């Protein structure tokens, strides 16, 4: 590297980024520097964001644990569909605020935006510990959705800007599986909190929300000190390392420097059919994921296990899912294929749903929950990587990621309404709704694979212009 290469400010210009071809890029830099920088990025970005996302998952899904810990009786959630309404109310603002949140992300900055989100939903979580009626519970759940709306799409957006396309899924998987491992033990932690029953005139379920809400607020304040920003503004890297990160991304997909977000660009991105195809895939993936999150303890409880046993038995399926997620992500990045591995995990999920729905022995039904959890969990980062690999520009990344994650919120609404109280304890209609979405996703994967393969072929034959407006860019199948 020349001395001039290392003299860059934190806000690099487009002309400062070297546009070398991807095959020669890593050879352009010292391999030791590339490896050291990637490791430093991984350690700074993935554990922190993964831990915060684990907290988000715990805070949005601990309603099921609180329900069987006494909240159902205290707030009369057994009347009609009150539990489903309380669960679903979270997703309405969560869906509506995804795109505005990602558009604000670049203006406000990653650190400020994520801190506002975490502290805000922590306050809503804390408030749930003091609700006197189920109506106030719904009110707090709405605010939980307001502040969590901007968090997950921002994390995916941030992570995808730091790495080359075929390095992304493994990173997204690490981010996601770290949250799976932590949330697997959340039920046990929640059970420990219920033992505070009677303290401060609060029932055990209320202490779940109070303690976890306080923890979330504290983490939000501490995270402000460590949350990384986008590569062009990163201060924890040297100028040479920052330039190397930007060069690699530029050579890989040509969008290392953010483009201006305009109304015309937003509308253009919203009219791309592929954006909505990825969104449906993510929706299909989150239906079983949310069903497990909200109902696994209830399903286990219905099998005849005690409260303590049901809460403890939620951990193993999550740990097994984390292992499965990483294995599939590693294979997907190594083979540079996305759709085929997503379809395999859909089939795994379908198998698990059928076993849990129709098997007689509790042990067999419990094994089915392992398959459902593994298949659904693996598809979440898989779809995000599939979509991220097949787009360029920060403006499209902001819009597309928000739309996809918003669709995941719709999946949450479907999961919480398809699994109805009248269908307890096996929830057969809800199981079949979830299975239908898995089959639909497999069909859509076939369509997108054909379309993307055809576009790649036409581009190689020179019959169409640059894909995504970027020279030497080809879709990942």
Blueprint of the fold:
Layout: H1 22-28, H2 31-61, H3 63-74, H4 82-89, H5 91-96, H6 98-108, H7 110-128, H8 134-148, H9 151-160, H10 168-184, H11 186-194, H12 204-223, H13 239-253, H14 263-270, H15 273-302, H16 307-312, H17 315-335, H18 339-358, H19 362-389, H20 394-418, H21 428-460
Helix pairs in contact: 2-9, 2-10, 2-12, 3-12, 3-15, 4-8, 4-20, 6-7, 6-9, 6-20, 7-8, 7-12, 9-20, 10-17, 10-19, 11-12, 14-20, 15-19, 15-20, 15-21, 17-19, 18-19, 18-21
InterPro entries: MFS, MFS_dom, MFS_trans_sf
GO molecular function: transmembrane transporter activity
Organism: Cyclocybe aegerita
Principal-axis shape: globular
The helix content, as a percent range, equals over 70%
Q: Please identify the top-level CATH class.
A: Mainly Alpha
Q: How much beta, percentage-wise?
A: under 5%
Strands, count: 0
Average pLDDT confidence is 88
Folded structure, characterized:
The chain crosses the membrane at residues 45-63, 83-105, 112-136, 142-162, 174-193, 205-227, 275-301, 307-328, 340-360, 366-386, 398-419, 431-452. The protein has 477 residues and is mainly α. The protein has a single domain (22-469), classed as Growth Hormone, Chain: A, CATH 1.20.1250. It is 74% helix and 0% strand. It has helices at 22-28, 31-61, 63-74, 82-89, 91-96, 98-108, 110-128, 134-148, 151-160, 168-184, 186-194, 204-223, 239-253, 263-270, 273-302, 307-312, 315-335, 339-358, 362-389, 394-418, 428-460. α3 crosses α15. The chain is globular and about 65 Å long. The two termini are 35 Å apart. The relative contact order is 0.14.
């Amino acid at each position: 590297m020349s001395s001039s290469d290392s003299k860059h400010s934190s806000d690099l210009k487009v002309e400062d980024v070297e546009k070398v071809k991807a095959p020669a890029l890593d050879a352009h830099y010292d391999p030791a520097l590339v490896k050291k920088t990637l490791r430093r990025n991984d350690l700074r970005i993935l554990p922190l964001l993964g831990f915060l996302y684990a907290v988000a998952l715990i805070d949005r899904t601990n309603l099921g644990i609180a329900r069987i810990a006494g909240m159902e009786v205290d707030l009369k959630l057994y009347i009609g569909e009150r539990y489903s309404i309380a669960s679903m109310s979270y997703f309405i603002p969560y869906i509506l605020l995804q795109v505005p949140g990602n558009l604000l992300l670049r203006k406000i900055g990653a650190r400020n935006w994520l801190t506002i989100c975490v502290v805000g939903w922590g306050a809503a979580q804390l408030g749930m510990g003091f609700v006197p009626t189920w109506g106030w519970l719904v009110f707090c759940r709405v605010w939980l959705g307001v502040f969590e709306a901007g968090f997950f799409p921002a994390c995916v957006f941030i992570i995808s800007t730091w790495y080359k396309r075929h390095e992304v899924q493994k990173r997204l998987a690490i981010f996601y599986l770290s949250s799976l491992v932590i949330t697997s033990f959340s039920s046990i932690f929640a059970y420990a909190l219920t033992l505070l029953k009677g303290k401060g005139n609060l029932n055990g379920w209320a202490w779940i929300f109070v303690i976890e809400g306080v923890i979330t607020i504290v983490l939000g304040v501490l995270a402000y000190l460590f949350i990384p920003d986008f590569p062009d503004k990163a201060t924890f890297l040297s100028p040479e390392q920052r330039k190397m990160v930007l060069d690699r991304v530029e050579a890989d997909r040509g969008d290392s420097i953010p483009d201006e977000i305009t109304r015309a660009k937003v509308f253009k991105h919203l009219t791309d059919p592929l954006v909505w195809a990825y969104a449906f895939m993510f929706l299909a993936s989150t239906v079983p994921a949310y069903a497990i999150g909200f109902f696994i303890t209830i399903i286990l409880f219905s099998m005849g296990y005690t409260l303590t046993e049901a809460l403890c038995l939620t951990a193993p399926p999550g740990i097994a899912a984390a292992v499965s997620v990483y294995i599939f992500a590693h294979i997907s990045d190594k083979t540079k294929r996305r759709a085929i591995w997503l379809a395999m995990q859909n089939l795994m999920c379908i198998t698990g749903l059928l076993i849990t729905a129709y098997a007689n022995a509790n042990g067999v039904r419990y094994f089915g929950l392992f398959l459902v959890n593994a298949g659904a969990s693996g598809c979440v980062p898989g779809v995000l990587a599939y979509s991220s690999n097949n787009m360029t520009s920060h403006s499209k990344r902001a819009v597309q990621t928000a739309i996809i994650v918003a669709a995941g919120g719709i999946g949450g609404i479907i999961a919480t309404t398809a699994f109805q109280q009248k269908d307890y304890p096996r929830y057969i209609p809800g199981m079949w709704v979830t299975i239908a979405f898995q089959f639909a996703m497999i069909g859509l994967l076939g369509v997108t694979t054909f379309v993307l393969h055809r576009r790649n072929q036409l581009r190689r034959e020179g019959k169409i212009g640059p894909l995504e407006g970027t020279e030497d860019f080809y879709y990942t199948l």
